[in-house]
Amino acid sequence: MKSIAQGSVELRRELTRKIENSEIDLPVLPDVASRVLALCQDPDGDPHELGLLIQRDPALAGNVLRIANSAAYAPREPIVSLQQAVSRLGMTTMGDLAIAAAVNGRTQVIKGRDAEMRTLRIHAAATAVWSREVARHRRRNVEAAFLTGLLHDVGRPIVLKAVLDLIDESPVEESVIQGFVDEFHAGVGARLIDMWKLPHWISIAIDGHHDLTRAGEHTDLAATVMLGDELAHWSDTPDAEHEAHIRALSILGPLGLYPEDIDDLLARRELVEQTKEAFA
Regarding the domain with residue range 4-24+109-279, which homologous superfamily does it belong to in the CATH classification? Predict the structure, then answer.
Protein backbone atom coordinates (compact mmCIF):
# COMPACT_ATOMS: atom_id res chain seq x y z
CA MET A 1 0.00 0.00 0.00
CA LYS A 2 1.41 3.36 -1.03
CA SER A 3 1.52 6.12 1.52
CA ILE A 4 -0.56 9.25 0.90
CA ALA A 5 2.66 11.21 0.34
CA GLN A 6 3.95 8.71 -2.24
CA GLY A 7 0.59 8.70 -4.01
CA SER A 8 0.57 12.50 -4.16
CA VAL A 9 4.08 12.68 -5.63
CA GLU A 10 3.28 10.12 -8.32
CA LEU A 11 -0.04 11.79 -9.08
CA ARG A 12 1.62 15.16 -9.51
CA ARG A 13 4.28 13.66 -11.78
CA GLU A 14 1.68 12.00 -14.01
CA LEU A 15 -0.55 15.09 -14.09
CA THR A 16 2.42 17.25 -15.09
CA ARG A 17 3.30 14.81 -17.86
CA LYS A 18 -0.23 14.81 -19.23
CA ILE A 19 -0.42 18.60 -19.23
CA GLU A 20 2.98 19.02 -20.87
CA ASN A 21 2.10 16.44 -23.55
CA SER A 22 -1.37 17.94 -24.16
CA GLU A 23 -3.04 14.69 -23.11
CA ILE A 24 -5.87 16.21 -21.09
CA ASP A 25 -9.30 16.82 -22.59
CA LEU A 26 -10.07 20.43 -23.52
CA PRO A 27 -13.69 21.35 -24.28
CA VAL A 28 -14.48 22.94 -27.64
CA LEU A 29 -15.95 26.45 -27.82
CA PRO A 30 -18.92 26.64 -30.20
CA ASP A 31 -17.98 28.23 -33.52
CA VAL A 32 -20.88 30.64 -33.17
CA ALA A 33 -19.51 31.99 -29.88
CA SER A 34 -16.04 32.71 -31.28
CA ARG A 35 -17.57 34.39 -34.34
CA VAL A 36 -19.83 36.48 -32.10
CA LEU A 37 -16.82 37.70 -30.12
CA ALA A 38 -14.92 38.60 -33.31
CA LEU A 39 -17.92 40.49 -34.68
CA CYS A 40 -18.46 42.41 -31.44
CA GLN A 41 -14.80 43.46 -31.38
CA ASP A 42 -14.99 44.73 -34.96
CA PRO A 43 -15.57 48.53 -35.02
CA ASP A 44 -17.55 48.02 -38.23
CA GLY A 45 -19.56 45.06 -36.86
CA ASP A 46 -23.16 44.91 -38.08
CA PRO A 47 -25.78 44.62 -35.27
CA HIS A 48 -28.22 42.89 -37.62
CA GLU A 49 -25.59 40.30 -38.54
CA LEU A 50 -24.91 39.74 -34.83
CA GLY A 51 -28.54 38.89 -34.14
CA LEU A 52 -28.65 36.47 -37.06
CA LEU A 53 -25.40 34.84 -35.95
CA ILE A 54 -26.54 34.18 -32.37
CA GLN A 55 -29.84 32.86 -33.71
CA ARG A 56 -28.00 29.99 -35.42
CA ASP A 57 -27.38 28.38 -32.01
CA PRO A 58 -30.80 27.90 -30.34
CA ALA A 59 -29.36 27.12 -26.90
CA LEU A 60 -27.08 30.15 -27.03
CA ALA A 61 -29.91 32.37 -28.28
CA GLY A 62 -32.17 31.21 -25.45
CA ASN A 63 -29.55 31.91 -22.80
CA VAL A 64 -28.76 35.35 -24.22
CA LEU A 65 -32.46 36.32 -24.15
CA ARG A 66 -32.79 34.98 -20.60
CA ILE A 67 -29.88 37.12 -19.39
CA ALA A 68 -31.08 40.18 -21.33
CA ASN A 69 -34.46 39.93 -19.56
CA SER A 70 -32.94 39.46 -16.10
CA ALA A 71 -33.03 41.94 -13.25
CA ALA A 72 -29.44 42.93 -14.08
CA TYR A 73 -30.65 44.77 -17.18
CA ALA A 74 -34.20 45.45 -15.97
CA PRO A 75 -35.85 46.03 -19.35
CA ARG A 76 -39.00 48.17 -19.08
CA GLU A 77 -40.68 45.75 -21.47
CA PRO A 78 -39.75 42.13 -22.18
CA ILE A 79 -37.09 41.64 -24.85
CA VAL A 80 -38.58 39.07 -27.21
CA SER A 81 -36.06 38.92 -30.07
CA LEU A 82 -32.31 38.95 -30.55
CA GLN A 83 -32.51 42.00 -32.80
CA GLN A 84 -34.39 43.82 -30.06
CA ALA A 85 -31.76 42.74 -27.53
CA VAL A 86 -28.93 44.02 -29.75
CA SER A 87 -30.75 47.31 -30.26
CA ARG A 88 -31.35 47.88 -26.55
CA LEU A 89 -28.15 46.48 -25.05
CA GLY A 90 -25.58 47.21 -27.74
CA MET A 91 -22.94 45.13 -29.47
CA THR A 92 -20.47 45.02 -26.58
CA THR A 93 -22.96 43.80 -23.99
CA MET A 94 -24.38 41.25 -26.42
CA GLY A 95 -20.89 39.89 -26.98
CA ASP A 96 -20.44 39.55 -23.21
CA LEU A 97 -23.77 37.76 -22.90
CA ALA A 98 -22.99 35.36 -25.73
CA ILE A 99 -19.56 34.38 -24.40
CA ALA A 100 -20.92 33.99 -20.85
CA ALA A 101 -23.73 31.74 -22.11
CA ALA A 102 -21.34 29.71 -24.27
CA VAL A 103 -18.81 29.20 -21.46
CA ASN A 104 -21.55 28.13 -19.04
CA GLY A 105 -22.74 25.66 -21.65
CA ARG A 106 -19.25 24.13 -21.88
CA THR A 107 -18.72 23.64 -18.15
CA GLN A 108 -17.36 20.19 -17.34
CA VAL A 109 -19.84 17.67 -15.97
CA ILE A 110 -18.04 15.82 -13.19
CA LYS A 111 -19.87 13.08 -11.31
CA GLY A 112 -20.50 14.03 -7.72
CA ARG A 113 -19.20 17.57 -8.21
CA ASP A 114 -22.34 19.40 -9.36
CA ALA A 115 -22.32 21.88 -6.47
CA GLU A 116 -18.63 22.62 -6.99
CA MET A 117 -19.17 23.26 -10.70
CA ARG A 118 -22.04 25.64 -9.97
CA THR A 119 -19.90 27.48 -7.43
CA LEU A 120 -17.20 27.87 -10.11
CA ARG A 121 -19.73 29.29 -12.58
CA ILE A 122 -21.02 31.78 -10.05
CA HIS A 123 -17.52 32.82 -9.02
CA ALA A 124 -16.48 33.29 -12.66
CA ALA A 125 -19.48 35.55 -13.25
CA ALA A 126 -18.76 37.51 -10.07
CA THR A 127 -15.09 37.95 -10.98
CA ALA A 128 -16.07 39.12 -14.47
CA VAL A 129 -18.43 41.79 -13.13
CA TRP A 130 -16.05 42.92 -10.38
CA SER A 131 -13.14 43.10 -12.85
CA ARG A 132 -15.31 45.23 -15.12
CA GLU A 133 -16.10 47.55 -12.21
CA VAL A 134 -12.40 47.90 -11.35
CA ALA A 135 -11.60 48.68 -15.00
CA ARG A 136 -14.48 51.15 -15.23
CA HIS A 137 -13.32 52.93 -12.08
CA ARG A 138 -9.80 53.17 -13.51
CA ARG A 139 -11.06 54.10 -16.99
CA ARG A 140 -9.50 51.05 -18.59
CA ASN A 141 -10.92 48.60 -21.15
CA VAL A 142 -14.03 47.22 -19.45
CA GLU A 143 -14.69 44.59 -22.15
CA ALA A 144 -11.20 43.12 -21.77
CA ALA A 145 -11.55 43.03 -17.99
CA PHE A 146 -14.97 41.37 -18.14
CA LEU A 147 -13.93 38.63 -20.59
CA THR A 148 -10.70 37.85 -18.77
CA GLY A 149 -12.48 37.78 -15.42
CA LEU A 150 -15.17 35.49 -16.84
CA LEU A 151 -12.54 33.05 -18.14
CA HIS A 152 -9.90 33.37 -15.39
CA ASP A 153 -10.73 30.00 -13.77
CA VAL A 154 -11.75 28.14 -16.93
CA GLY A 155 -8.90 25.68 -16.35
CA ARG A 156 -10.13 24.60 -12.90
CA PRO A 157 -12.73 22.00 -13.92
CA ILE A 158 -10.36 20.66 -16.57
CA VAL A 159 -7.56 20.06 -14.07
CA LEU A 160 -10.02 18.66 -11.51
CA LYS A 161 -11.36 16.17 -14.06
CA ALA A 162 -7.82 15.18 -15.06
CA VAL A 163 -6.83 14.58 -11.43
CA LEU A 164 -9.94 12.54 -10.67
CA ASP A 165 -9.38 10.44 -13.79
CA LEU A 166 -5.88 9.60 -12.56
CA ILE A 167 -7.02 8.50 -9.11
CA ASP A 168 -7.79 4.79 -8.77
CA GLU A 169 -7.26 3.21 -5.38
CA SER A 170 -4.51 5.55 -4.29
CA PRO A 171 -5.38 7.47 -1.11
CA VAL A 172 -5.48 11.18 -2.01
CA GLU A 173 -6.96 13.76 0.31
CA GLU A 174 -9.32 16.42 -1.03
CA SER A 175 -6.88 19.14 0.02
CA VAL A 176 -4.24 17.56 -2.22
CA ILE A 177 -6.63 17.44 -5.16
CA GLN A 178 -7.56 21.09 -4.72
CA GLY A 179 -3.88 21.95 -4.34
CA PHE A 180 -3.21 20.52 -7.79
CA VAL A 181 -6.15 22.48 -9.19
CA ASP A 182 -4.78 25.67 -7.63
CA GLU A 183 -1.32 25.00 -9.02
CA PHE A 184 -2.14 24.08 -12.60
CA HIS A 185 -5.43 25.78 -13.51
CA ALA A 186 -4.02 29.09 -14.76
CA GLY A 187 -1.62 27.48 -17.24
CA VAL A 188 -4.21 24.99 -18.47
CA GLY A 189 -6.79 27.76 -18.79
CA ALA A 190 -4.37 29.79 -20.91
CA ARG A 191 -3.88 26.79 -23.23
CA LEU A 192 -7.63 26.42 -23.58
CA ILE A 193 -8.07 30.09 -24.51
CA ASP A 194 -5.42 29.72 -27.22
CA MET A 195 -7.11 26.55 -28.49
CA TRP A 196 -10.38 28.47 -28.68
CA LYS A 197 -8.53 31.08 -30.76
CA LEU A 198 -9.68 33.89 -28.51
CA PRO A 199 -7.43 36.98 -28.29
CA HIS A 200 -3.97 35.98 -27.04
CA TRP A 201 -3.93 38.78 -24.44
CA ILE A 202 -6.69 36.92 -22.59
CA SER A 203 -4.57 33.77 -22.26
CA ILE A 204 -1.53 35.76 -21.12
CA ALA A 205 -3.53 37.62 -18.46
CA ILE A 206 -5.17 34.38 -17.29
CA ASP A 207 -1.77 32.68 -17.02
CA GLY A 208 -0.60 35.54 -14.80
CA HIS A 209 -3.67 36.28 -12.68
CA HIS A 210 -2.06 34.59 -9.65
CA ASP A 211 1.55 35.36 -10.62
CA LEU A 212 1.95 38.74 -12.28
CA THR A 213 5.50 37.92 -13.39
CA ARG A 214 3.88 35.65 -16.02
CA ALA A 215 1.64 38.39 -17.42
CA GLY A 216 4.31 40.39 -19.27
CA GLU A 217 2.91 43.44 -21.03
CA HIS A 218 -0.59 42.50 -19.84
CA THR A 219 0.28 42.86 -16.14
CA ASP A 220 -2.26 45.65 -15.66
CA LEU A 221 -5.10 43.45 -16.95
CA ALA A 222 -3.94 40.47 -14.89
CA ALA A 223 -3.77 42.67 -11.76
CA THR A 224 -7.28 43.96 -12.49
CA VAL A 225 -8.60 40.39 -12.62
CA MET A 226 -6.59 39.47 -9.52
CA LEU A 227 -8.41 42.24 -7.65
CA GLY A 228 -11.73 41.24 -9.23
CA ASP A 229 -11.12 37.69 -7.98
CA GLU A 230 -10.51 38.92 -4.43
CA LEU A 231 -13.59 41.16 -4.53
CA ALA A 232 -15.69 38.23 -5.77
CA HIS A 233 -14.62 36.09 -2.80
CA TRP A 234 -15.31 38.98 -0.40
CA SER A 235 -18.69 39.66 -1.99
CA ASP A 236 -19.92 36.14 -1.23
CA THR A 237 -19.57 36.61 2.52
CA PRO A 238 -18.41 40.17 3.25
CA ASP A 239 -16.62 40.52 6.56
CA ALA A 240 -14.14 42.91 8.12
CA GLU A 241 -11.22 40.50 7.96
CA HIS A 242 -11.51 39.93 4.21
CA GLU A 243 -12.09 43.63 3.60
CA ALA A 244 -8.89 44.41 5.51
CA HIS A 245 -7.09 41.82 3.36
CA ILE A 246 -8.27 43.56 0.17
CA ARG A 247 -7.20 46.97 1.46
CA ALA A 248 -3.71 45.58 2.17
CA LEU A 249 -3.16 43.98 -1.26
CA SER A 250 0.17 44.91 -2.82
CA ILE A 251 -1.42 45.30 -6.27
CA LEU A 252 -3.44 48.36 -5.22
CA GLY A 253 -0.42 50.65 -5.58
CA PRO A 254 0.45 49.58 -9.15
CA LEU A 255 -3.25 49.83 -10.05
CA GLY A 256 -3.29 53.40 -8.71
CA LEU A 257 -6.07 52.67 -6.21
CA TYR A 258 -6.34 54.52 -2.90
CA PRO A 259 -8.54 53.86 0.18
CA GLU A 260 -11.34 56.03 -1.18
CA ASP A 261 -11.26 54.05 -4.45
CA ILE A 262 -11.72 50.82 -2.53
CA ASP A 263 -14.59 52.44 -0.60
CA ASP A 264 -16.26 53.23 -3.90
CA LEU A 265 -15.76 49.71 -5.26
CA LEU A 266 -17.04 47.97 -2.13
CA ALA A 267 -20.15 50.16 -2.23
CA ARG A 268 -21.07 48.57 -5.58
CA ARG A 269 -21.62 45.12 -4.08
CA GLU A 270 -25.41 45.05 -4.41
CA LEU A 271 -25.29 45.98 -8.10
CA VAL A 272 -22.53 43.44 -8.78
CA GLU A 273 -24.38 40.65 -6.99
CA GLN A 274 -27.50 41.32 -9.04
CA THR A 275 -25.58 41.30 -12.30
CA LYS A 276 -23.59 38.21 -11.30
CA GLU A 277 -26.73 36.15 -10.85
CA ALA A 278 -27.83 36.97 -14.39
CA PHE A 279 -24.57 35.82 -15.94
CA ALA A 280 -24.23 32.72 -13.75
Answer: Hypothetical protein af1432 (1.10.3210.10)
- Crossing angle of helices 114-138 and 91-105, in 10° steps, is 160
Report the distance separating Cα 71 and Cα 67, nearest Å. 8
Tell me where in the chain the CATH 1.10.3210.10 domain(s) lie.
Answer: 4-24+109-279
The pLDDT score that the predictor gives to residue 60 is 79
pLDDT at 7 over 90: no
**49/55 Cα distance (integer angstroms):** 10
CA distances from 262 to 16, 146, 223, 247 (A): 39, 19, 15, 7
> pTM here?
0.88
Q: Taking Cα atoms as reference points, which of 149, 158, 115, 154 lies closest to residue 229?
A: 149
Handedness of CA 275, 225, 145, 180 (dihedral sign): negative
Cβ atoms of 171 and 5 closer than 8 Å: no
The per-residue pLDDT for range 112-168, each reduced to its tens digit, is 899 999 999 899 999 999 999 999 999 999 989 999 999 999 999 999 999 998 986
Residue 262 CA to chain centroid, in angstroms? 22
pLDDT averaged over every residue in the chain: 88
Amino acid making up residue 254? P
222/161 Cα distance (integer angstroms): 25
Q: Can you give the pLDDT at residue 92? A: 82
| C-alpha triplet 152, 156, 161: angle, nearest 5° | 155
